[in-house]
From TrEMBL:
The keyword Repeat does not apply. One of its GO terms (molecular function) is polysaccharide binding. It catalyses: S-ubiquitinyl-[E2 ubiquitin-conjugating enzyme]-L-cysteine + [acceptor protein]-L-lysine = [E2 ubiquitin-conjugating enzyme]-L-cysteine + N(6)-ubiquitinyl-[acceptor protein]-L-lysine. The gene is LOC105141914. It is found in: Membrane. Belongs to the RING-type zinc finger family. ATL subfamily. Residues 1-19 form the signal peptide. This is RING-type E3 ubiquitin transferase.
Length: 270
């Protein structure tokens, strides 16, 4: 009997662990931080199948961050799953340094806003006051400007790079986040969130994504529930109920067996 109980308890713990592994709870790096769920994930806090490759986030000092090899870490302000928008902030307080160095083509992301070609110039002297100098990229010897790609190159300037970016520099706009929004697209998940769904891997083995049908009642989503911390607690409660029911059933069956054995023993004595 003790061995049987041990087996049941061990099996229930195994089921609980596997259930939590297959579940993908939503996490946050801080109380007021953005919800992190598929296709994003935090390594070490969510299983690997809970996120798409290239969508890894990091929690650093209660701050949500994403690292780009071509630039470095950026702060994640918010994540809109409905509009597939990742709003970022540059911890160096220089969004045009991000524009100048970030290469979204090597990532699953692209700029959220429409792009236009601008040329970055580095000049040894200041240009006309009508042109705005990118203060965070300039110093006493280097004066950096963003100009139209058709702009005539002055003798004192050299061209750094011509790239498509959302906005040219303006001193009247925030210098750490304005225009710093990215978007993404996953096959089979177009408008998934706006239709009440949740984009997920169709299997743990592959990378194919999809938007499974969701049973909803007055806006209630089963997938959203199971992808939350509440879903984890429900799984644990269900496993606990299963274990307790099984133990009670075995105990009842054991008592009945004792009664049958005792009755048979009394018959033999007669």
């Amino acid at each position: 009997m003790d061995a049987c109980m041990f087996y049941i308890l061990f099996f229930s713990m195994f089921l609980t662990i596997k259930a939590l592994e297959s579940n993908c709870p939503t996490v946050k790096c801080s109380h007021d931080g953005p919800d992190i769920r598929f296709p994003f994930r935090v390594a070490g806090r969510q299983p690997q199948h809970c996120g798409q490759p290239g969508f890894d986030l990091v929690c650093k000092e209660n701050t949500t961050m994403i690292d780009f090899p071509s630039y470095g870490p950026l702060v994640v302000i918010s994540i809109s799953y409905d509009f597939r928008k990742l709003s970022l902030l540059d911890p160096k307080n220089c969004v045009h340094e991000v524009f100048l160095n970030l290469n979204p083509s090597g990532t699953p992301f692209r700029y959220y806003y429409l792009l236009k070609n601008f040329t970055y110039l580095n000049c040894s002297t200041r240009l006309s006051p009508s042109l705005n100098e990118v203060s965070c990229l300039s110093d006493s010897r280097n004066h950096v400007y963003t100009v139209e790609s058709s702009f005539h190159l002055p003798f004192s300037c050299r061209q750094l790079k011509t790239i498509p970016i959302p906005f040219s520099y303006s001193p009247y706009l925030a210098d750490n986040s304005f225009g710093l929004g990215l978007t993404w697209s996953l096959p089979g998940c177009e408008d998934c969130e706006s239709r009440g769904g949740s984009c997920v891997f169709q299997s743990k083995e592959g990378l194919k994504t999809g938007c499974p049908r969701i049973a909803q009642d007055k806006g209630f989503s089963v997938v959203h529930l199971l992808s939350s911390g509440t879903g984890s607690m429900i799984l644990i409660i269900l496993v606990f109920i299963f274990v307790m029911t099984t133990m009670i059933s075995i105990k009842v069956c054991f008592r009945q067996k004792l009664k049958v054995d005792k009755a048979a023993e009394n018959e033999n004595l007669l």
